[in-house]
Known about the structure:
The structure holds 2 protein chains of 2 kinds.
Chain A: H1 32-46, E1 64-65, E2 68-69, E3 71-79, E4 85-86, E5 89-90, H2 91-105, E6 109-120, H3 125-142, E7 146-154, E8 162-172, E9 188-191, H4 197-206, H5 223-232, E10 236-240, H6 246-258, E11 261-265, H7 273-282, E12 296-299, H8 304-312, E13 321-327, E14 334-337, E15 343-345
Chain B: H1 10-23, E1 30-36, H2 37-45, E2 56-63, H3 71-82, E3 87-90, H4 105-110, E4 119-121, H5 125-134, E5 140-146, H6 151-164, E6 169-175, H7 178-187, E7 201-204, H8 207-212, H9 218-224, E8 228-230, H10 235-251, E9 256-258, H11 270-279, E10 280-282, E11 285-288, E12 292-295, E13 299-301, H12 310-313, H13 329-334, H14 365-373
Parallel strand pairs in B: 1-2, 1-7, 3-4, 3-5, 5-6, 7-8, 8-9
Antiparallel strand pairs in B: 10-13, 11-12
Amino acid sequence: xxxAQGKTRRGYARPLDLTRGRVDLTHGxxxxxxxxxxxxxxxxxxxxxxxxxxxxxxVLPAPMLEGRPGRLVLSTDCHVVSPLFFPGxxxxxxxxxxxxNDVAMMGATPLYLAAGxxxxxxxxxxxxxxxVESMANAARAAGVPVVAGDTKVxxxxxxxxxxxxxxxxxxxxxxxxLGGGRARPGDAVLVxxxxxxxxxxxxxxxxxxxxxxxxxSDTAALHGLVAAMLATCTDLRCLRDPTRGGLAATxxxxxxxxxxxxxxxxxxxxxxxxxxxxxxxLGLDPLNVANEGKLIAICxxxxxxxxxxxxxxxxxxxxxxxxxxxxxxxxxxxQLTTAFGGRRIVDWLAGDQLPRIC
Amino acid sequence: xxxIDEFRDGDLARNLAQNIVAAAEPGRTYSxxxxxxxxxxxxxxxxxxxxxxxxxxxxxxPGCPVCVLxxxxxxxxxxxxxxxxxxxxxxxxxxxxxxxxxxxxxxARAGTGGSCADVRMVYSTRDAxxxxxxxxxxxxxxxxIGFETTTPPTALAIQxxxxxxxxxxxxxxxxxxxxxxxxxxxxxPETEQGPAVAIDGLIGPAHVSTVIGSRPYEFVxxxxxxxxxxxxxxxxxxxxxxxxxxxxVNAGRAEVENEFSRAVSREGNxxxxxxxxxxxxxxxxxxxxxxxxxxxxxxxxxAQYAAFDAERRFQLEYRFVPDxxxxxxxxxxxGVKRPQDCAIFxxxxxxxxxxxxxxxxSEGACAAHxxxxxxxxxx
Lengths: 358, 379
């Protein structure tokens, strides 16, 4: 099957068994079983006028801004996460939020999504339905339809249950230019809220750790927050969501792209006590831990107070904070003044985060 | 975070820093070795050097379990997984340590060089036992590394395996001993690689000392006339211990003091020591990276548990492999060189492509300096 999905067959002998049924190889082989999976599972949750056309691709109107064709932003993101269901979300809503956020970090308003699924033979259809329903809910809440999709099935042992790739299209407001290469010495560095929630939620679940206060993933679609920020501050330099590699990786990326350094204040970086405690236990540095509902904003120093106020006024930016400044530095080091008053580098993570031995 | 925030209080730290500056006599220098990689990490992570007076220098010691493993031991583990078909279970950092021929356990796992090794990262010996239970038809070997902190869990795992009759489980024992390494460093004469390390005092390990107690360090004061202060891993612990060392040096005292009294006693954890003694005995000698062959510095599995000893079970032979010539890990582990003194630091050797073991573990001196402190080098 390729492209958009539709009502290709009617009247299957038996409906899909979402209680006990499993993905099998026929669900990916292009026959009736696959058409049934598409109709009874994917179209049931994700269906809309574009998917319903059942063509190889979706025909979309070009976005117009003030009578002129707008510039498009296109972004794609592959999602592989273990476990597939975690506190605060699952791979379904994550795959929607992840791509919407990439589009939003360019300053664009997301318009459409496409989704590709790689399913492993033997995966429970009921769980797949939960994932697709969660995806549909996330897309609906964001106001962005999934207009095209594709499914493949791989043999048992050749996948990890479900992999989802999503692609998003958005339209950029006139005149807006954001980019990782635009940070300048003196600029302010802001973060929209507490860091490390997503990564710690995933790792706690993997390690079967429970805490008095539950740790939930922060997975969320940030385009609403971005719209509120753009309405206040038109001279934003850069937005970026600190996902894999955490705040440290994202700030190092921007420092390298812009040819600058940064000086952060450890005390200013928002961190939930329970996340800090879990990081202690697991031997992680929260600065390296993934987020799925946070953004970093870099703006001219004069804009910082207004931008911070706008972020804090939005439900997804209540804990926003000014965490540091951009400085001139030929080495492009991201540095941190520790809560202790000492200084250190905030480096990229080397390899994986690993627990201490002794 | 209760019991943690109290030991990271910035105001208290500044107070302590002022006390250290006030106590340090301007006319003299102070060199203190933090033996343990956990302390090395904390010093870099919290930027403690910025709070210390210029005439006080911290020298990194060899207390990093991954760093002191010689190449030959990693080769044995790779051999088990790659050519003997065993499932090798190991603590994480070990995966990236460079072995012979450009290999590492990570590369063996990915299939570099043809076949794939079954190497699994575990968080504890319990995980390794579970792997053995889950794969009764496979040989499962736990690659046991670390100082006295990690030794009691290995002893328990071997006893557990015996009581369950888990006959497919064995241990490649590479457990090493802290006091023996300290003695070697204090005795080490000038070598062709550089002068002997001149240290005025030692910061004793935190977790290791919870097991062995403070008594095993008493020879440092008695025989070598150097003060020892056992310290916790939190930054305030370290600052307090440094102040205690400065005061001992000023007063001409050489005593074992215990800053980490909330967890360490003179006798240590007697139950854990008893378990270790049941299962392990001293090796005659063991090769350490940087310290060469050190007598009575490591443990081996007693004959009565021979069935669980991977070295006997697979008839493994240790083969000495020299370190890369350009790598200064050996001198750095002895405290005679600093990471930035190594010609390949940060260029050929980086955390992504480590040449020496000190660049691998976050407790290694090179990785700590690269990850947290290298901004200082440009001045």
